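Quick one: sequence plus zinc ion SMILES, need structure tokens.
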Amino acid sequence: MVEDIFGKIPEYLLKAILYLQNYYPFYFEVMLNMEIIKVESETMKQQVPTAGVRVNKNVIELMYNDDWLKTFTTPEIVFILKHEIFHILLKAHQRCKSRNQKLFNIAQDMVINNLLKNTFGHKIDEEKLQPLFPPSEYHDEIITEKLYDWIYEKAKKNGKGKGEKGEGDGQKENFDVHLEDIDCPEEVRELITERIVSICKARGLVTSNEENILTYLRPKRKTYIDEMMMLLSNTIGLKKKLTWSRENKYGLCMRGYKRVRNKVNVILDTSGSMWGELIQKMLSFIIRNNVEIFLVQNDTEVKDHKLIRRMKELNSMKIHGGGGTIMQPAINFLIKNKMNDYPTIMLTDGYTDTLNFSMLKNKMLILTSGQHCELEGKKNHVRQIKVDVL
Ligand SMILES: [Zn+2]
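Reply:
Sure thing.
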């Protein structure tokens, strides 16, 4: 059923969204992936007196209080919207770890507002909105973790002076609220963001300036889980796939929702026992993200295949180990079973026959515990990474 996601949005907010569409298409695209929610009840208004974002299951929710938001001009609302979008893009929630949440939010808010003011040149009435900026005494790099350390030290000193333990007490807060995610594991949240960013990149919406901002401001880490997430980012993510439907009188394209079923192929080289519990970890990661696994076990030929839908099925899975390593039969098996449209992950030690993935249409990730596999034919959709086992 087509759902009109802009239907209930007041005109002043639509104006700001249109402004984004015209001048900042990347942020507009991110907004299209959010559910925009006006808080109605008194309890919710108390929780969200201004605006804030959270992920509720698989959906990004932008919540706003109409009484507050409507008092701002279009450029100011654009500033506020972009501030919230950056909370999602910069992965604010995952990066806090064991730090003081309140202070971490403050540091993140300062970084975002600084970006909007100094990099994007957004002009706003600072008296009215009261955004937080990095203190003028702070001279280091404007990155959340570094700024956090600085504010934390300062808060500790101030706290001591007053004989209090409360870190962050007395620190002024930003205009928005920072809501807890609901029922959304960290990896899923990250996948949702990755998926949106990769769609925007593929559509040419991310300018080199924005690309620089994103690489500079987001934490860097590369593990097999990241590689898997990149591979799966088109498969996992929003539980409903957004599709373009029709245009409304404002010229905004609206989107409808269509349910999709997600699958991934996993080819397991069972010639050795080199993967240990990594297999279980990896497969359960995929299942937890609501993706079905078409699992093919292969040593010199296909020994077993199974569609795994639930954790229970995963736990009762048996591994059929064996002799040498000839993996091409597993690839041919996927093609024969018409599974070549789905992304594929292969776990192997890499000491295989020369492999040909030309017929697999989706992305292919090889996780190898030994050496890189030898490849032939079309291979620009294939990515190989060496993984440390155990
Ligand atoms: Zn904020």
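The first strand starts at residue 34 and ends at 38. The chain is about 40% helix and 20% strand.
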